[in-house]
Amino acid sequence: MTSVLRAQGLGKKYHRDWVLTGCTLDVPAGHVTGLVGPNGAGKSTLLNLAAGMLAPTSGTIEVCGGVPGSGAEQLAKVGFVAQDTPVYAGLTVAEHLRLGARLNAGWDDALARHRIERLGLDPDRRAGKLSGGQRAQLALTLAIAKRPELLLLDEPVAALDPLARREFLRDLMETVVEHGLSVVLASHLIADLERVCDHLIVLVAAQVRLTGEVDELLATHHRLTGPRRDETSLPADQEVISASHTDRQSTLVVRTEGPILDPAWTVGAIGLEDLVLAYLARPAAGLRPSLELLR
Length: 295
Ligand SMILES: Nc1ncnc2c1ncn2[C@@H]1O[C@H](COP(=O)(O)OP(=O)(O)OP(=O)(O)O)[C@@H](O)[C@H]1O
Description:
Elements: E1 3-14, E2 17-28, E3 32-36, H1 43-51, E4 58-63, H2 72-77, E5 78-81, H3 93-103, H4 109-119, H5 132-145, E6 150-154, H6 162-179, E7 182-186, H7 190-196, E8 199-204, E9 207-213, H8 214-220, E10 221-227, E11 239-245, E12 249-255, E13 266-268, H9 272-280
Parallel strand pairs: 3-7, 3-8, 5-6, 6-7
Antiparallel strand pairs: 1-2, 1-4, 8-9, 10-12, 10-13, 11-12
Helix pairs in contact: 4-5
Domain ABC transporter: 5-230
Keywords: ATP-binding, Nucleotide-binding, Transport
GO molecular function, one term: ATP hydrolysis activity
């Protein structure tokens, strides 16, 4: 597997707070990787480190084989659309494209113009007078038209209407297939991620809780429903990710490579949203709360 982003023990501290710690990651090239986690988990921090906008406090991060932000060649390889989709309020749409062409050796002007035209953005309109969604589309166009190897998108579709969102994700998939682009996409919209991502990173409280290929993660996680029982009684190879109980019944999400043989359980498949939610609700690693605590 060729990696487009590799982190080893990556950490970032603001003042006295670690907002990212011990992150070890391998993001595969040529895929769309979803980055999910609750507010404040550290997603934007990770993307800013990958873009070279921030420097790590500990550990290392390598992007497209280089140190993030380490020079013109490195900057050309990475497209980044930050959470607030920054554009220059005083410049028109056309001026943004001219600036993009000036600053980026690999600029694809035909792609940029075609996209702006298809979106119906007036080239003479100042960016400060665009709607939030239109500004996001402009920022995305600039990032895609520089033809990066890796595109880092921090909640890019949050401001787009549902149709624009779907079209943007379709475009993105086409670009990934046509140009072998790699994408890391932070989003709270798991249904969107389910449509486009084949890899996943779940960040919770500054740490990587889960990472892997979506199909494999879905195949190794199961929902078990059955008569109430304490989950500590499960076989050692079945890792309990989440548990909820009523007086009579227990529902667990477990991770295991092997089959579930206990006939007391009804075994169901799990979707991406439930999988992510199970990890978000999970106490920190190593804690196996007792049944009573979970009531
Ligand atoms: N410049 C900064 N100075 C101090 N603390 C910061 C700074 N930027 C972010 N933080 C803190 O770092 C933590 C992680 O923030 P980050 O923006 O990376 O989270 P996030 O997962 O992207 O959240 P969201 O989903 O809300 O966008 C938060 O607790 C935040 O308050």
